[in-house]
Design goal:
- By secondary structure, the protein is an alpha+beta fold.
- The chain folds into 2 domains: 115 residues, no CATH class; 66 residues, Nuclear Transport Factor 2, Chain: A, CATH 3.10.450.
- 52% of the residues lie in helices and 17% in strands.
- The protein contains 6 helices and 3 strands; from the N terminus they run αααααβββα.
- A hairpin with a 5-residue loop joins strand 2 and strand 3.
- Helix 1 runs parallel beside helix 5, helix 3 crosses helix 5 and helix 4 packs across helix 5.
- InterPro entries: COMM, COMMD4/6/7/8.
- This is COMM domain-containing protein 6.
């Protein structure tokens, strides 16, 4: 994915770096690589969503490692220049600028951050449906609930996780959420 940096225009790369920094500073829930991918695709850049997500992970790793090691802007740029596969000049310029402007805030956030290894819940949506028939069964007529969870993994990638439940399963699921809400009210 790192070799795809050459394909990405400097302004898009800067936006990706900014989104990564915002996520590392806990100002956003995640990095919207799908939206950025769609804009890149419309501008004629040939890159896949997974390649863009890998690139976001690389940038996130780069900035969080620099923060943990308290690297100055010049130390970070020197480390990037010493790599076997040097980054394109425009990418180094963007990284230099973003780190110079916001690197200290990431270092503070990185120190305060405990090592999150679980995804962060962002949103939940559900819808009720009825399966009328299928190839193997002419008359189902059973209701079901489709639940979609929007989560950001520890690297900041936002994904949707969907699953279906029967009505009794959904009622149990709902009652568990009510129990959690009741417990949180006491905190």
């Amino acid at each position: 994915a790192a070799d795809k940096i050459d394909l990405i225009p400097q302004d898009f790369f800067a936006e990706l770096c900014e989104q990564v920094i915002q996520h590392l500073n806990h100002k956003t829930e995640g990095i919207n690589t799908v939206e950025l991918y769609q804009r890149l695709e419309m501008s004629g850049v040939e890159i896949t969503v997974s390649e863009l997500a890998k690139l976001a992970n690389i940038i996130s790793f780069l900035f969080s490692t620099a923060a943990r090691n308290h690297l100055s802007t010049e130390e970070l740029v020197a480390a990037l220049g010493s790599e076997v596969r040097a980054l394109p000049k425009h990418a180094v310029q963007v990284i230099r600028h973003v780190w110079n402007e916001q690197g200290k805030a990431v270092s503070v956030a990185e120190e305060a951050r405990n090592t999150d290894t679980v995804a962060q819940f962002i949103d939940l949506s559900w819808k009720l449906g009825v399966a009328m028939s299928s190839d193997t069964c002419r008359s189902l007529k059973y209701p079901y609930v489709t639940v979609t969870l929007k989560v950001a993994d520890p690297s900041g990638q936002v994904t949707n996780k969907s699953f279906e439940m029967t009505i009794p399963q959904f009622k149990n699921f709902s009652s568990q959420f009510k129990e959690m809400a009741a417990v949180l009210e006491t905190v």
